[in-house]
Amino acid sequence: MSPQTIPLSDLAVGTHALISKMGDDPHLCYLRCMGFCPGAHVELVRRVSGGALSVYRVDDADVALRQATAALISVRMEG
């Protein structure tokens, strides 16, 4: 049985996951350059601006993403 995938935007604060798939949106290219790619470990660090933005940690860098952007990235839970 393969692990269930969820949108990155659905992670709970403090949760770690592995990126399993990235959408085809051309706006995601810059995220790939920052380490957001399939197989990368990601953690939701905190939500800000009333939940409109979330801060994710990938490759020891903290990156703020809009919820709509994070929803284009699929992850599977670690552990």
Outline the secondary-structure elements.
Elements: E1 5-7, E2 16-22, H1 29-33, E3 41-48, E4 53-58, E5 61-66, H2 67-70, E6 73-77
Task: Describe the model.
The protein is mainly beta. It has two helices and six strands. The chain has helices at residues 29-33, 67-70; strands at residues 5-7, 16-22, 41-48, 53-58, 61-66, 73-77. A six-stranded antiparallel beta sheet has the order 1-6-2-3-4-5.
First-residue to last-residue Cα separation: 15 Å
**Run of helices and strands:** EEHEEEHE
The averaged pLDDT comes out at: 91
Give the total of beta strands.
6
Query: Which oligomeric form is depicted?
Result: single chain
SS class: mainly beta
The count of helical stretches stands at 2
Radius of gyration: 11 Å
Any low-confidence stretches, pLDDT <50, length ≥5? none
How can the largest sheet be summarized?
A: 6 strands, antiparallel
Spatial order of the strands forming the largest sheet: 1-6-2-3-4-5
